[in-house]
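ok new one. same drill as before - structure tokens go in, u give me an amino acid for every spot. 182 of them this time. try not to just spam alanines like last time pls lmao
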């Protein structure tokens, strides 16, 4: 693994996460870089930046195995994994009537949402989806600050795996695409 302490990358495409990056990264220690498109996420680019961590809040593409094995990649998932692995966690939780959840930071592995857990924090699901996403984006940066300060040892997930299906904005499984990641 190629890492140098003090350099960090955030990979995200959603406007609420980009806004949170611009607002919160100046207050975090170290040097920060934002990747906003999948074509910017290459081994060569990461090697040039030599990050300690690569963070993925709300990234919608599968990350190449070569990247997750060479760099410490941490994704954020809006469920208390192993419950709720898979796509559309917010939509699935709302469909299931949940009023709160856990935002989980986990080490990325080849299997989707199956990596060991770095950290998790409670997240209210009250309000509109846009409000929840903004609230989650700020919580991500609180968690990032904790991760870079404490460098927690990831802990294996425990319990029964429950997979969520990717849902369309209509929330109905009959509208779900055959393939997708969120």
């Amino acid at each position: 693994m190629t890492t140098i302490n003090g350099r960090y990358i955030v990979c995200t495409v959603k406007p609420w996460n980009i806004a949170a990056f611009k607002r919160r990264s100046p207050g975090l220690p170290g040097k920060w870089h934002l990747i906003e498109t999948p074509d910017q996420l290459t081994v060569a680019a990461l090697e040039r930046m030599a990050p300690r961590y690569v963070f993925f809040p709300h990234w919608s593409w599968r990350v190449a195995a070569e990247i997750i094995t060479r760099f410490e990649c941490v994704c954020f998932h809006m469920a208390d994994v192993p419950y709720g692995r898979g796509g559309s966690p917010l939509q699935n939780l709302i469909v299931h009537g949940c009023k709160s959840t856990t935002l989980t930071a986990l080490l990325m592995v080849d299997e989707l949402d199956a990596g060991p857990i770095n950290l998790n924090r409670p997240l209210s699901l009250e309000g509109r989806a846009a409000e929840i996403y903004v609230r989650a984006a700020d919580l991500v940066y609180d968690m990032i600050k904790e991760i870079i300060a404490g460098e927690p040892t990831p802990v294996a997930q425990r319990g029964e795996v429950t997979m969520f299906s990717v849902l369309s904005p209509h929330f109905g499984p009959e509208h779900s695409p055959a393939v997708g990641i969120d």
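The chain has one domain: 7-175. and btw The domain at 7-175 is CATH 3.40.50.170 (Rossmann fold).
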